[in-house]
Amino acid sequence: MDNKLEMARDKFIEGLSRMGDAFGLNRFVIQLYAFLYLTGKPLSLDEIVEALGVSKGNVSINIRELEKWGAVRNIWIKGSRKDFYQVEPDAKKIFLNKVKSAIQKRTNELSSLMEEFAQILESIDENLDEEEVKIAATYAERLAKLKEMKDMIVSAAEIFSKFA
């Protein structure tokens, strides 16, 4: 491959992986997707390993993650016994779906935490001194603000998902 083409490819892959990393995504998974995205044709694990200079085990594990995301699919190529992988070319769809699922996961975790926190607050007996009453009121106030924030995030995620 021409050095400038290789340099352009590597810059693209590195840039996307940094962006994915900023969103909390596995850096190598994003690199793998970016490579397959640019290639635009089905590749075997061996071809991917050779092009990226990484272990076959690493590629195999991370390609499975991309399959879970719906970002790549295993395809059959007539005359070959190898597994070939083809990228989902709609990167926007993959990104938005991944962000949406991450938001849903985190808001579900937050809901569980808030529910547990609220139950503990509700179970406090009424024999609190004046300082403890203030602390409990502060906790309840913070919980209410956290609920508002979670509701805002859920609303934003619903709007966001319309673009996916």
What would your notes on this structure say?
The chain is mostly helical and 164 residues long. It folds into 2 domains: 87 residues, Arc Repressor Mutant, subunit A; 70 residues. It is 73% helix and 6% strand. It contains 6 helices and 3 strands; from the N terminus they run H-H-E-H-H-E-E-H-H. The chain has a 3-stranded antiparallel beta sheet with strand order 1-3-2. Strand 2 and strand 3 form a beta hairpin. Helix 2 packs across helix 4. The longest helix is centred in the middle third of the chain and has 33 residues. It starts with a helix and ends with a helix. The mean pLDDT is 89.
Properties at a glance:
mainly alpha; 6 helices; 164 residues; 3 strands; 2 domains; 3-stranded antiparallel beta sheet
Gyration radius from CA atoms, angstroms? 23 Å
CATH-assigned homologous superfamily of the largest domain: Winged helix-like DNA-binding domain superfamily/Winged helix DNA-binding domain
Helix count from the secondary structure assignment? 6
Q: Helix fraction?
A: over 70%
Uncertain spans, ≥5 residues at pLDDT below 50? none
How does the overall form come out from the CA principal axes?
A: elongated
Question: In CATH terms, what is the architecture of the largest domain?
Answer: Orthogonal Bundle
Report the average pLDDT across residues.
89
